[in-house]
Specification:
The protein starts with a strand and ends in a 27-residue tail after the last strand. The protein has a 5-stranded parallel sheet, with helices on both faces. It has a 4-stranded parallel sheet with strand order 3-2-4-5, with helices on both faces. A 3-stranded parallel sheet has the order 7-6-8, sandwiched between helices. It has 3 domains: about 110 residues, Cobalt-precorrin-4 Transmethylase, domain 1; about 90 residues, Rossmann fold (3-Layer(aba) Sandwich), CATH 3.40.50.11270; about 80 residues, Cobalt-precorrin-4 Transmethylase, domain 1 (3-Layer(aba) Sandwich), CATH 3.40.1010. Helix 4 runs parallel beside helix 5 and helix 8 runs parallel beside helix 9. The chain has 10 helices and 12 strands. It is of the alpha/beta class.
């Protein structure tokens, strides 16, 4: 068996920042601290922080007054912030800056009296938070049927935004449909789908055709990981999502000559390395790192400014 390792893969700048933020807050405040929603959508990351004393909640009411809360990388609505303020919580915001950009766009369009169409998965934490910025102005569309059912008066100004972790292919189809229905619809000044999502998808597109199977390391609630599986399958290549080494079914590997392994933006590299080591031991696999120089990632995000409330010496 030959293993191709896709590059880039795994943690992005936003995930690194969010994880570092929780680690710093635990060091400064001590356990327990509270995290609103999963800090990133990966089971191993979440369980690791639980073991260190982080408590993950889905409601601000679950947090005792005066405690510390960290907001996940996916962002939260203004209503959540108001609830936290009312409980006198110390709020640390680990929202990915690229998600925050979409929030800012939503607020700006709402102030300008635009009707906003948000392309995304309506139950995803990121979309819930964005809709909360302007709930009376935003329509969420997930598919072509949603686009067809939109009822927006002709005299309304219209703009669209997208969830940052969407499939580029799917988003392009929906954007084209929106532009056909609403020729005057305004596009974001800069693409909302984040650089890391784009790069990981492009790597799979460029390599999948050479492979018999694609393994995507990531958790089932990770939107960007699921999109990598879809992209491979859309190109006629078998693909599986695996949380870790225990999720690998060896029946999948029968007859596989070349295997592509990648990882979603919230999946730790150690999980990839564990799977690769197992395959090398069991199948005598050889490993080839595929490096896409055009997609090299050097972006880093500093810890959030809200860390200063915990530690005035924090370097932003």
């Amino acid at each position: 068996m030959k293993i191709l390792l896709a590059n880039p893969r795994g943690f992005c700048a936003g995930v690194n920042m969010a994880i570092e933020t929780v680690e710093r807050v635990l060091q400064l405040r001590g356990a327990p601290i509270y995290v609103f929603h999963e800090i990133v959508h990966n089971r191993h990351v979440v369980e690791g922080f639980k073991a260190k004393g982080a408590i993950f909640v889905d409601s601000i009411e679950q947090i005792p007054p005066n405690a510390t809360v960290v907001y996940s990388a996916h962002g939260v609505s203004p209503e959540i912030r108001r609830q936290a303020t009312a409980r006198r919580l110390v709020q640390v915001d680990a929202t990915c800056p690229l998600v925050a950009k979409v929030h800012v766009e939503a607020v700006r369009y709402a102030r300008q009296k635009y009707t906003i169409v948000l392309i995304g998965h309506r139950d995803h934490d990121e979309v819930v938070g964005t809709v909360g910025e302007a709930p009376d102005c935003i329509h969420v569309v997930e598919n072509l049927a949603d686009v067809a059912s939109l009822h927006i008066p002709d005299d309304h100004n219209i703009a669209y935004l997208t969830q940052t972790t969407l499939s580029l292919d799917d988003a392009e189809v929906l954007v084209a449909a929106l532009k056909q229905r609403f020729p005057r619809i305004k596009s974001p000044a800069k693409e909302d789908i984040c650089y890391a999502t784009t790069n990981r998808q492009l790597a799979v597109k460029q390599l999948a055709w050479r492979c018999d199977l694609v393994l995507v390391v990531g958790s089932a609630n990770s939107s960007n990981s699921l999109r990598l599986v879809e992209i491979a399958r859309n190109r006629g290549v078998a693909a599986r999502l695996v949380d870790d080494i225990d999720a690998v079914d060896h029946e999948w590997l029968k007859g596989v000559g070349t295997l592509l392994i990648t990882a979603g933006a919230s999946a730790p590299e150690e999980l990839v390395r564990g799977i690769v080591a197992m395959l090398c031991l069991r199948y005598g696999a050889t490993v080839e790192e595929e490096r896409q120089e055009a997609h090299r990632e050097n972006l880093e995000f500093g810890v959030p400014r809200s860390m200063r409330e915990l530690d005035p010496a924090t370097q932003i």
